[in-house]
């Protein structure tokens, strides 16, 4: 290599290194998280917790009401807000008694806690699981399943199983039929398939009542736009939904005069149903607490309202990794975000670091559910017993990992709310 080529190669290498070298992302708490940290240190339990910010939740309830199609009812998705008090708070503010349930123990709990609620299953339950509900549920209960609960049925064989259950228990079941509006997660795919199910229901009026359709459409906003635009996918899903409604009326025109539940949407698409929808009720849950998976353009008007807080157990300078201890002060030369190491209480949640800014996991050390290693630059000025804050990427499973929710207003812990029983 001649001198000229050597200089060019050296400059190119220096530029490449400068471009690849990670930025220093560290920074102090914002005033919001600083206040939360102070209150948690004074009044908290110094354990990992899931916090719900009621001020932000209130804003999200308003945002949801602002974009809800005024011709539709709102059905809250219980699995995404899995706390009886949280559900009660939102049902009150949003003036709805409609909930979508996905887990049998949640059904039992909700039916007892909110006996006036109107419940629709969001997934088909094995008939044996449904049977266990009726074994616990007696006629004295205020909640009346024959009027207030719709089981989701995705196929004729499942309908046969539910008919057998109804006959064996001498009960009447409300049947909502799952339709596939493009997600392909199950349910009837063609409107003609409806005929056999409706016939079976109508042949057994003492045991079964048709109560409506459920067509869930989150794929609409998740398809790459190069394949299909969200508007096009939405129109297609609506056309499919409409074809089932028309088939139903063609089978028996009397259904037009009945109060049926045509359930649709979910947080990702609820805004698309705003001006025109064939559904008469729309479901949403996650958008009200907005985990990171819901950072979608369609949910821009919502704000994060749930955070994990967890104390720092240990703080160390540099980054020490077993067997490459000599790299302790070299790693931070490459990545300033490795200037400090924190070990936190717990970890490896489905969540992203939120505050202070610039925290990151260490891929060399590996994750831990017991004491996760977290790195950050010297611009992060927290110490042992301060708190690290993360945003869950989803609510439905992450909320279940911390015990009671800590309820915050004005950055002060107000109370704790229980989590729905999982068994
Ligand atoms: C049938 C059904 N409807 C609606 C939803 C929407 O829930 P969320 O608003 O929490 O995304 C879901 C989520 O899984 C679902 O399965």
Please tell me about this protein's structure.
The structure is a single chain. This protein is α/β, with parallel strands linked by helices. It folds into 2 domains: 24-50 and 304-417, Lyase, Ornithine Decarboxylase, Chain A, domain 1 (Beta Barrel); 54-290, Alanine racemase (TIM Barrel). Helix content is 32%, strand content 22%. Helix 6 runs parallel beside helix 8 (156-169) and helix 8 (156-169) packs parallel to helix 9 (194-203). The mean pLDDT is 95. Bound molecules: pyridoxal-5'-phosphate. Pyridoxal-5'-phosphate is lined by residues 77, 80, 100, 122, 216, 266-267, 283-287.
Key words describing this protein structure:
single chain; 423 residues; alpha/beta; Lyase, Ornithine Decarboxylase, Chain A, domain 1; TIM Barrel; 2 domains; eight-stranded parallel barrel; 17 strands; 32% helix; 22% strand; elongated; binds pyridoxal-5'-phosphate
């Amino acid at each position: 290599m001649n001198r000229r080529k050597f200089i060019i190669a050296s400059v190119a290498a220096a530029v490449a290194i400068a471009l690849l070298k990670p930025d220093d992302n560290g920074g102090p708490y914002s005033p919001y998280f600083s206040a939360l940290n102070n209150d948690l240190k004074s009044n908290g339990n110094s354990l990992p917790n899931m916090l719900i910010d009621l001020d932000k939740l209130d804003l999200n309830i308003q945002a949801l009401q602002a974009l809800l199609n005024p011709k539709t009812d709102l059905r809250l998705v219980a699995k995404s807000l899995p706390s009886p008090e949280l559900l009660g708070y939102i049902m009150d503010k949003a003036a709805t008694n409609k909930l979508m349930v996905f887990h049998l123990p949640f059904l039992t709990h909700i039916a007892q806690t909110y006996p006036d609620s109107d419940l629709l299953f969001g997934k088909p339950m094995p008939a044996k699981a449904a049977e266990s509900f009726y074994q616990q549920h007696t006629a004295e209960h205020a909640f009346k399943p024959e009027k207030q609960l719709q089981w989701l049925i995705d196929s004729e064989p499942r309908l046969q199983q539910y008919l057998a259950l109804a006959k064996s228990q001498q009960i009447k079941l409300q049947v909502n039929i799952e339709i596939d509006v493009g997600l392909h997660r199950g349910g009837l795919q063609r409107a003609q398939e409806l005929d056999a199910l409706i016939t079976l229901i109508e042949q057994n009026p003492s045991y079964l009542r048709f109560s409506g359709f459920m067509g869930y459409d989150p794929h609409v906003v998740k398809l790459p736009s190069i394949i299909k635009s969200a508007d096009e996918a939405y129109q297609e899903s609506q056309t499919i939904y409409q074809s089932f409604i028309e088939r139903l009326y063609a089978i028996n025109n009397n259904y037009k005069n009945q109060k049926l539940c045509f359930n649709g949407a979910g947080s990702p698409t609820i805004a698309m149903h705003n001006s025109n929808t064939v559904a008469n009720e729309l479901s949403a849950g996650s958008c009200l607490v907005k985990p990171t998976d819901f950072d979608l353009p369609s949910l821009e008007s919502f704000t994060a309202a749930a955070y994990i807080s967890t104390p720092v157990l240990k703080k160390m300078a540099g980054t020490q990794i077993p067997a490459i201890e000599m790299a302790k002060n070299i790693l931070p030369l490459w990545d300033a975000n490795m200037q400090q190491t924190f070990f936190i209480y717990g970890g490896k949640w489905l969540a992203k670091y939120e505050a202070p800014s610039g925290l990151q996991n260490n891929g060399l050390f590996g994750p831990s559910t017991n004491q996760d290693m977290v790195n950050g630059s010297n611009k992060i000025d927290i110490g042992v017993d301060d708190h690290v804050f993360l945003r869950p990427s989803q609510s439905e499973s992450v909320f279940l990992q911390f015990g009671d929710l800590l309820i915050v207003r004005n950055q002060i812990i107000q109370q704790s709310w229980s989590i729905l029983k999982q068994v």
